[in-house]
Amino acid sequence: MIDAAGLRVMRAIAEEGSFTAAALALGYSQPAVSQMVKRLEQRTGTVLVEKVGRSVRLTEAGAVLARHATPVLAALDAAEEEVAAIAGLRSGRVRLMAFPSSSVTLVPRALAAVRAEHPDLSVQFAEAEPPESIAALRAGDVDLAVAFSYEGSDLARGEDPEGFVVHPLIDEEVRVALPRDHPLAVKETVSMTDLTDEDWIAGCARCRGHLLKIAHDAGFAPKVAFETEDYVAVQGFVAAGLGVALIPDLIRAATSNDDVVIRPLDPKSRRRIHVVTTEDLLKVPAVATTLEALVASAAAATPSAVS
User: Fold this and answer.
1) Which of 1, 49, 101, 219 is deepest in the core (most CB within 10 A)?
2) Are the beta carbons of 9 and 27 closer than 8 angstroms?
């Protein structure tokens, strides 16, 4: 195997014309240079340097190595500098995937902090609901996934959790959104059993599954009249009197509609927001830094952050 040290020695011999001068240029001892040449000759199976009086010259094979040394060593130096820049957060790329409602405040605040502290670090962002984001992480398509789970459900919907590192960010309450003129709007807390005959505005697949579960626990099957994953649209439908909906606190704190009243449910409903990566990716400085920014953003959020 031809190594970088051997290439540097061959280039120095070509430039300096002797072992002694090459050793001086490289900061090695003359015997060390001789040993490195012998080792390289053993590895290549041919003579690389021949003595001519008190000087030396490269054989044809040695000249080939010396000629290739410059571009190869330049590429290695560039690679080392690029890796050092990534390790030192002077550059690097992080691929982040998050569910849409986290894009309202949680994710933008974190990315703004990353940009302010590390302006040369690039974060690529895409939206996806869990478990699609977890599957993308498993496939190596993203480095971090912001996902959520409801009480009684797993984060990845059967995805093998081995190798994942899960950081809980926010533990939030899920409430019911009602038209302002709804008879139940005057109550401080609304029982799920009081919503038996209501039309519902449902969200993502996991959100619909949660609605079906808590309605089933209350003894009824919800009538889903409309479906949208846009929580601004959800509140618009509710305000128009087209149904009621479940609203998590993260959205309640970020958006509002004057014609919508949001009340706690009985029994209470909760969901937990997590940021997920892998054990290996967590060792990458840019990934760890972005994760830390998400944790800090969660701590600043209105709902209760968790550790």
Assistant:
1) 101
2) no
Quote the CA–CA distance of 150 and 152 in Å, as a whole number. 6
Q: How many CB atoms lie within 10 A of CB 15?
A: 12
Structure tokens at 223: 């009538």
Identify which of 198, 209, 186, 192 has the alpha carbon closest to the alpha carbon of residue 237: 198
Q: Is the distance from CB of 121 to CB of 289 less than 8 angstroms?
A: yes
Examine the pLDDT at 307 and tell me if it is beyond 50. no
Which segments of 99-222 are extended strands (E)?
A: 122-127, 144-150, 164-179, 190-191, 199-202
- Three-state DSSP at 113 gives helix
Distance in angstroms (rounded) separating the CA atoms of residues 192 and 222: 10
301 pLDDT band (50/70/90 cuts)? confident
What does the alpha-carbon distance between residue 299 and residue 276 come to, in Å, rounded to a whole number? 17
Indicate the average pLDDT of the chain.
Answer: 89
SS3 content of the chain, % helix, strand, coil (to 5): 45, 25, 30
SS3 string of 226-239?
EECCCHHHHHHHHH
The length of the chain is 307
